[in-house]
Write a structure and sequence with these properties.
This protein is α/β, with parallel strands linked by helices. It has five helices and nine strands; from the N terminus they run ββββββαβαβαβαα. The strands form two sheets. Strands 1-2-3-4-7-8-9 form a seven-stranded mixed sheet, covered by helices on one side. A two-stranded antiparallel sheet has the order 5-6. Strand 1 and strand 2 form a beta hairpin. It is globular.
Length: 183
Amino acid sequence: SDENYRIGKFSIEKKLESKDGTKKYLFNVLDEKENLIETVLMSYHHGFTICVSTQIGCRMGCKFCASTGIPFERNLEPGEIIEQIMAIEKESEIKISNIVFMGVGEPFDNYENVMKAIDIINHPKGLNIGARHISISTSGIVPKIYQLADEKRQCTLSISLHSSNNEKRSEMMPVNNAYPIEE
């Protein structure tokens, strides 16, 4: 029943295509508030890469990021993260080869759901995308970086530094106040 689960697909509210072929999708997640999320599809010589969102809004407040203007509403569930990939594969009639967790939201602020989504994306009976074709981008939540390392996952990790100076980095990225560059 609708009380316990939902089967369906996101509706595409808007789709924009740039001159280089990059496509930006604005999805309605079809929840009670009809929240919207962004997902980006990029085409390269080695295949298709998708940049997925992990949250509706973001709490990090990084000055350089478009997510900063979107108030945090909630974390995306693993199925909602995966649905971004499946909806674009179906709409574009392609197979995604690379996943980047760098859309709206901080992936490590939704760690458990992101890891569950990665397990499904990587599983042979899931989307069967190799772990080395999955990249997580974080603003630098250090305890989760160590947790990821301890779990020995083979996905790629990118950390947004934006400055080698703590004072300048803190101006751009409030997370630096809690986890400075040295950490």
